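Thread: "does anyone have the structure for this chain?"

Original post by V.I.:
We have the sequence but no experimental structure in hand. Need at least a predicted one for the grant figures.
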Amino acid sequence: MKIVAGVGKNKKVIEAIENVNFEVLKTESEEELVKLLFNGHADAAIRGSLSTSKIMIKLREKYPKIARASYIDLKGQKFLLAPVGIDEGDDIKQKLLIAEKGSQFLTSIGIKPKLGILSGGRPQDYDRSTKIDDSLEDGELLTSLINKESIDAKHYFILIEDAIKEGANLIIAPDGICGNLIFRTLVLLGNGKSHGAVTLGMKEIYVDTSRSQDVEGYKNALKFAYYLANLKKQI
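Reply from O.Q.:
Generated one for you, tokens below.
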């Protein structure tokens, strides 16, 4: 089993590689990372601290409809958070795709999907601004569309804390910017642990990571990628 990891400016990736007990290939090239993943020379890949935009461009040449969902452990409760790419989840169609692909991923690793949909206010906040109204209406519509796909989903509005308390395992933020900010607040400032962001909608295993991650974060991502690769071989 081989995992390929990108080594950019954050050399903590190298320290993380030295502290796992499986084989990890190192690369300084986004193109080489994708090539090793696509040609089967690596069973999974993590971004490390290479350029996410360059890698995503390469991945989208083969898979136009992909999105990232960060796998977070918050005080023992694990859940996916998406969208986390700042250019992802800008409309209902994209978020519905995330809901479907994220639910399929959770099912594939033996977890029953329970989705928490977020929006920009409480129910009583209608009419405070057009932006808030649009966000609340999008949340309602998205929830109804997901439920029509026979996927368990609830609109929690802005109350992310309630979604966590009630055990949601796939939290969908209003857009990628909000999702990225939630991730940074939970993981880089708070006590949440990141296992990287799994890329939904592709058969190969690619786990995205933050360029600001610490050694433990990169170790978690490497172990997560290894776990997914091992699970895939068993299926």
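V.I.: this helps a lot. The radius of gyration is 17 Å.
O.Q.: and Residues 215-234 form the longest helix (20 residues).
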